[in-house]
């Protein structure tokens, strides 16, 4: 019965989760610290009568003997698994990124050659194929992020505004339709897109109906920007202007940096927009339904029209969530991997190569694990920097409404 | 709406369904509906074509990629997938299916148990280092997954878990986002219930298992569904944790098969049928429990 779910269900969990005594993530740490730091967890019995009034939520301490041990027992699976398969591996990879290791011997016995920061140096400063490839992957991913994030955010916002229309028929069905691609396997939908975008596939057949000859999507390495400008006669793709061809950055000429995503990359961008817009639509929808009705009614009494309502009431109320969606989108798009693996593996002409995939293929296909790990760490730092930057921007914009911590 | 509601709330409820502004004029409304239906088709058509193409022959799929009715309907693709015809070589679909099922079931069970244990401890039990651990969980959620491909391989390789079921399953059995969801939920349960159980002499485990967990049913269902979806669709971890064909899942198997250098239009009915079957379990869950998926999407917002 998917269509029976009304807009109310969209906010079921946030409501439930926020109805209780829920401190913000930052504040949550304050509770145990004040209640337990002076030895209370180990010897709660002694401070029994005094402990209770200190924080309203603290239960009578007398029955809490051994709670500290229970606490650690309960979190031990988490500590073990996250420690062994997340923290330790990161440290190991940090070490391997300083080695010249082919994946054969044990990298922790000193058999592999220690090369210091060489792996990073070849990627960032030394002229050579490695740096050119890495720069190419960065260029591709920058275009991927720059196109995917605004498109998916805009589309999600429009879809949310549509399914939030109170008089629209079959809103539930539409919401289900738009959301469904988001829950499916990335590998499975990539397979479908491979089929749709073949040279003589469904998309090109559709295009031919309106008289457009579609490109051979996955084999087309031409950058869309340079092709577009070439088509307008501004730039000749075969003879780029001297300024752009003569100057280079990280081993790629300015012309290559500026030529735009390839046609093949554009299909991956379309796929990403198509699959993720549903999730972000739901986040927008929950925020739309949290706008106080009184506010909208007051505005309506003032006689605002639809555009003014959108501009002065709806969009300002959505701004915090908009930042959230942009952040989540940026973090996710810098990690694109599955689609690249299925749809291009870097081909054609390295134009679908992304840092994530380059890191994988350098390690597992070229058996250069040190270099692969170094790429992974540069990517990691990059993503964490972007996250930090966006969090900082978020904080500057004032507090967000309570339900979306 | 509650049947015993008085007149005033009823009126308010009726109001809530009504738009604040009036209807669009008719021509605009017609145009709007046309656009919305068009958009919906864009979201549905790929799946419809996938379904139909699975019942086409290879030449038919190549010649009529947009045809919504197979010219010569055949179940050859499905017969190959289920090993009913000789040509099933290279596509050990049943093995993929078995591996995916095994892994998804075990990972889901592990996540539901371990995430709720950790979430409960972080929400309710007082112990030294709790706030530090919670900070750790929040930090873990910020680590981008693709940066962990090589690290994960390294640790599995070092421990001798590379290319084993243990290596596929164990690292996925805890996830920080699930712990976060459970912690949030446990904090919303009134403490009095636990107090009462404790006064009655129930220990920590008993309180957790017989009192708190049953109350957490909605959150547990959400966690179960999200865990199953996540592990069923998981790709990168299996890609770096395994090597031999016997451990291939629907995602790694299909990805290798599809990207495996086979030329353009070949075997699309087979590939699309396999992709469809790989989508089916999660799709079925989605249509039965959509609201829990919706909560999951919104809990993405929780991560911030």
**Biggest sheet statistics of chain B:** none
Mean pLDDT of chain B: 86
The CATH architecture assignment of the largest domain in chain A turns out to be: Orthogonal Bundle
Domain count of chain B: the total is 2
Oligomer: heterodimer
If you had to describe this structure to a student in words, what would you say it looks like?
The complex is a heterodimer of chains A (about 400) and B (about 300). With about 400 residues, chain A is mainly alpha-helical. Chain A has two domains: about 45 residues, no CATH class; about 240 residues, Orthogonal Bundle (MetI-like fold), CATH 1.10.3720.10. Chain A is about 65% helix and about 0% strand. In chain A, the strands form two sheets. In chain A, strands 1-2 form a two-stranded antiparallel sheet. A two-stranded antiparallel ribbon of chain A has the order 3-4. In chain A, β3 and β4 form a beta hairpin. The two termini of chain A are about 30 Å apart. The N terminus and C terminus of chain A are likely disordered. With about 300 residues, chain B is mostly helical. The N terminus of chain B is likely disordered. Helices cover about 70% and strands about 0% of the residues of chain B. Chain B starts with 6 loop residues before the first helix and ends in a 5-residue tail after the last helix. Chain B has two domains: about 60 residues, no CATH class; about 180 residues, MetI-like (MetI-like fold), CATH 1.10.3720. Chains A and B meet through α1, α3, α5, α8 and α9 of A and α2, α5, α6, α7 and α9 of B. Chain A: This is Sugar ABC transporter permease. Chain A: It is found in: Cell membrane. Chain A: It is a multi-pass membrane protein. Chain A: Keywords: Cell membrane, Membrane, Transmembrane, Transmembrane helix, Transport. Chain A: Belongs to the binding-protein-dependent transport system permease family.
Write the layout of secondary structure elements.
The complex is a heterodimer of chains A (405) and B (304).
Chain A: H1 12-19, H2 25-28, H3 30-36, H4 48-54, H5 67-96, E1 99-100, E2 113-114, H6 118-124, H7 129-163, H8 171-183, H9 186-196, H10 202-209, H11 224-231, H12 242-246, E3 248-249, E4 252-253, H13 254-258, H14 263-288, H15 293-302, H16 306-333, H17 338-343, H18 355-364, H19 369-396
Antiparallel strand pairs in A: 1-2, 3-4
Helix pairs in contact in A: 7-8, 7-14, 7-16, 8-14, 9-14, 14-16, 16-19, 18-19
Chain B: H1 7-16, H2 26-53, H3 58-63, H4 76-81, H5 93-123, H6 130-141, H7 149-158, H8 165-169, H9 176-188, H10 191-199, H11 204-215, H12 217-233, H13 236-241, H14 250-259, H15 268-288, H16 290-299
Subcellular location (chain B): Cell membrane
Pfam families (chain B): BPD_transp_1 (PF00528)
Membrane topology (chain B): Multi-pass membrane protein
């Amino acid at each position: 019965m998917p269509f029976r779910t009304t807009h109310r269900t969209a906010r079921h969990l946030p409501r439930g989760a926020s109805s209780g005594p829920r401190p913000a993530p930052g504040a949550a740490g304050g509770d145990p610290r004040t209640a337990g730091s002076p030895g209370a967890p180990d010897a709660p019995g002694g401070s029994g009568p005094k402990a209770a009034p200190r924080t309203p939520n603290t239960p009578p301490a007398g029955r809490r003997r051994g709670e500290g041990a229970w606490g650690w027992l309960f979190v031990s699976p988490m500590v073990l698994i996250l420690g062994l398969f997340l923290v330790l591996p990161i440290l190991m990879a940090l070490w391997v990124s300083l080695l010249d290791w082919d994946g054969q011997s044990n990298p922790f016995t000193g058999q592999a050659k220690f090369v210091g920061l060489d792996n990073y140096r070849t990627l960032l400063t030394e002229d050579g194929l490695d740096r050119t490839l890495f720069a190419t992957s960065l260029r591709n991913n920058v275009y991927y992020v720059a196109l995917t994030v605004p498109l998916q955010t805009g589309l999600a916002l429009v879809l949310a505004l549509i399914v939030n229309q109170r008089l629209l028929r079959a809103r539930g069905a539409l919401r289900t339709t738009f959301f469904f691609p988001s829950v499916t396997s990335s590998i499975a939908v990539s397979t479908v897109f491979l089929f749709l975008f073949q040279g003589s596939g469904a998309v090109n057949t559709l295009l031919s109906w309106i008289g457009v000859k579609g490109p051979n999507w996955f084999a087309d390495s031409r950058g869309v920007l340079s092709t577009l400008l070439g088509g307008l006669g501004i730039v000749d793709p075969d003879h780029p202007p001297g300024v752009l061809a003569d100057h280079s950055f990280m081993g790629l000429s300015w012309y290559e940096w500026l030529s735009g995503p390839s046609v093949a990359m554009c299909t991956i961008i379309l796929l990403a927009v198509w699959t993720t817009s549903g999730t972000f639509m739901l986040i927008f929808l929950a925020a739309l339904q949290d706008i106080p009705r009184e506010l909208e009614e007051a505005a309506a009494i003032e006689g605002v029209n639809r555009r003014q309502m959108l501009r002065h009431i709806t969009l300002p109320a959505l701004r915090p969530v908009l930042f959230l969606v942009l952040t989540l989108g940026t973090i996710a798009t810098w990690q694109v991997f599955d689609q690249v693996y299925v749809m291009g593996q870097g081909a054609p002409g390295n134009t679908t190569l992304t840092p994530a995939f380059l890191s994988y293929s350098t390690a597992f296909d070229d058996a250069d694990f040190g270099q692969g790990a170094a790429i992974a760490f540069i990517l990691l730092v990059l993503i964490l920097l972007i996250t930090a930057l966006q969090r900082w921007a978020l904080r500057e914009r004032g507090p967000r409404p309570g339900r979306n911590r | 709406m509650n049947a015993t509601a008085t007149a005033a709330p009823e009126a308010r409820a009726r109001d809530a369904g009504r738009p604040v502004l009036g209807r669009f004029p008719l021509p605009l409304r017609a145009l709007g509906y046309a656009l919305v239906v068009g958009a919906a088709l864009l979201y549905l058509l790929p799946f419809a074509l996938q379904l139909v193409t699975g019942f086409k022959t290879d030449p038919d799929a190549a010649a009529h990629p947009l045809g919504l009715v197979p010219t010569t309907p055949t179940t050859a693709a499905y017969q190959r997938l289920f090993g009913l015809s000789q040509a099933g070589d290279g596509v050990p679909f049943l093995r993929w299916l078995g591996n995916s099922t095994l892994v998804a079931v075990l990972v889901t069970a592990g996540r539901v148990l371990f995430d709720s244990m950790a979430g409960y401890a972080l929400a309710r039990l007082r112990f030294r280092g709790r706030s530090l651990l919670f900070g750790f969980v929040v930090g873990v959620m910020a680590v981008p997954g693709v940066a962990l491909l090589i690290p994960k391989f390294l640790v599995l390789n070092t421990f001798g878990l590379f290319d084993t079921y243990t290596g596929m399953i164990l690292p996925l059995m805890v996830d920080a986002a699930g712990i976060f969801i459970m912690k949030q939920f446990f904090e919303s349960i009134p403490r009095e219930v636990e107090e009462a159980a404790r006064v009655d002499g129930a220990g920590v485990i008993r309180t957790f298992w017989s009192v708190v967990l049953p109350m957490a049913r909605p959150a547990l269902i959400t966690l179960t569904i999200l865990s199953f979806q996540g592990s069923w669709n998981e790709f990168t971890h299996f890609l770096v944790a395994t090597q031999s064909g016997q451990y291939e899942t629907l995602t790694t198997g299909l990805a290798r098969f599809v990207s495996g250098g086979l030329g353009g239009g070949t075997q699309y009915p087979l590939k699309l049928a396999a992709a469809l079957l790989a989508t089916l379990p999660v799709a079925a869950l989605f249509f039965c429990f959509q609201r829990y998926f919706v909560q999951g999407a919104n809990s993405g917002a929780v991560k911030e």
